[in-house]
């Protein structure tokens, strides 16, 4: 999976090199909002994309067929040199 955020406030989401979807994003403070959402099954109000220093933390909650929900958190650490 690859998520590219581009300079013109757009994004591209690819899997195995194939574009899955694209859209726009807004970065307010440390929280990022993607339109349309990257994970189509996510409960958008419960999805957060947060940049904290060199870390990007994505947390999303998705409904399951049983009526319950499942939450997944992914953290990526970047080696930023400025």
Detailed description of the structure:
The chain is mostly beta strands and 82 residues long. It has strands at 2-5, 10-15, 18-28, 31-35, 48-52, 55-63, 69-77.
Layout of SSEs?
Layout: E1 2-5, E2 10-15, E3 18-28, E4 31-35, E5 48-52, E6 55-63, E7 69-77
Antiparallel strand pairs: 1-2, 2-3, 3-4, 5-6, 6-7
The major β-sheet equals: 4 strands, antiparallel
Instruction: Give the SSE order as H and E letters.
Output: EEEEEEE
Order the strands across the largest sheet as they lie in space. Answer: 1-2-3-4
Helix share of residues? under 10%
Q: Find the count of extended strands (DSSP E, 2+ residues).
A: 7
* Average pLDDT: 76
Show unreliable segments.
Answer: none
Rg: 13 Å
Q: What is the overall number of helices?
A: 0
The assigned structural class equals mainly beta
Beta content comes to over 45%
First-residue to last-residue Cα separation:
26 Å
- The dominant shape is globular
Keyword list:
82 residues, mainly beta, four-stranded antiparallel beta sheet, three-stranded antiparallel beta sheet, globular
Briefly summarize what is shown.
The chain contains no helices and seven strands. The model has no long low-confidence stretch (mean pLDDT 76). It has strands at residues 2-5, 10-15, 18-28, 31-35, 48-52, 55-63, 69-77.
């Amino acid at each position: 999976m690859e998520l590219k955020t581009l300079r013109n406030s757009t994004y591209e989401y690819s899997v195995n090199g194939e574009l899955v979807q694209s859209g726009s994003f807004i970065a307010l403070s440390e929280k990022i909002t993607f339109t349309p959402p990257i994970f189509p099954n996510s409960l958008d109000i419960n999805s957060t994309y947060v940049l904290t220093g060199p870390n990007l933390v994505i947390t999303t909650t998705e409904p399951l067929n049983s009526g319950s929900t499942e939450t997944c958190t992914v953290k990526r650490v970047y080696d930023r040199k400025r």
